[in-house]
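The instructor's notes for this session suggest beginning with a concrete chain rather than abstract definitions. Hand out the sequence below and ask the class to guess, before any prediction is shown, which regions might be ordered.
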Amino acid sequence: MVDDEKPVRASLRDILTRSFPAVQLVGEAGTIPEAVREIHQHNPDLIFLDIEMPGYTGLQLLEFFNPSEITFDIIFVTAFNEYAIQAFKISAFDYLLKPVNPADLALTLQRYSGKKQKLAERAALLKESFSENPVLSQIAISSLQGIDFVQLDNIILFEASGTYTHLILNEGEPILASKPLGEFEEVLQKNNNFFRAHRSYFINLHYVRKLSSKEGDVILLRKNIEVPLSRYRKKEFEQAIAQFKI
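After discussion, reveal the predicted structure:
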């Protein structure tokens, strides 16, 4: 674990020791240079990493490694606000809020796959998301098969499927994401190109072709995809598509 606050490290160490005996804690560090030495020495599978630290931030950790040396994954442990949490979600990183709750830690460890997938790319996207005025062009999607990087302008819609979400793309095969629809709406809430048309559908307005009102309001998207428009959202929809009218 990497955190400049000794009490935080002690608390997490205690939780892991008492409640997660299968997790072997091989090292600790209070700075990024110390963390680099510990990682080279112990070759861990997983790192619990703080972001705000003296000298170097947690976001700079991977800059000390060649791509072939990155054989670990990262779970961020942070006291950051909701804005920062959005950045973790965009880049498919797991995170824990300080003080760490054992129940949250259990869920996070359960999601951890140990596959170390596309860590460098996810870290680059995370750093981009942390910039003051990020202009995001893609999002990292966690699926049952791994992690996919998807261009936002290639997404036609998100469709709820229980606790999962189907992504229908303009180009490429559909993706079944292991996150609920509401999480994608939350992540893209400031992107005016996406609109919650219905409780089960979050659409890209660039792919709207027509609004039909013959049998209730139905939005026709590219590829002849039809999506119901909630009657409570019709006025918002008309306002939203105004930016695309000629």
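Then share the key points. The chain is about 30% helix and 25% strand. Residues 138-244 form a domain with the OB fold (Dihydrolipoamide Acetyltransferase, E2P) fold (CATH 2.40.50.1020).
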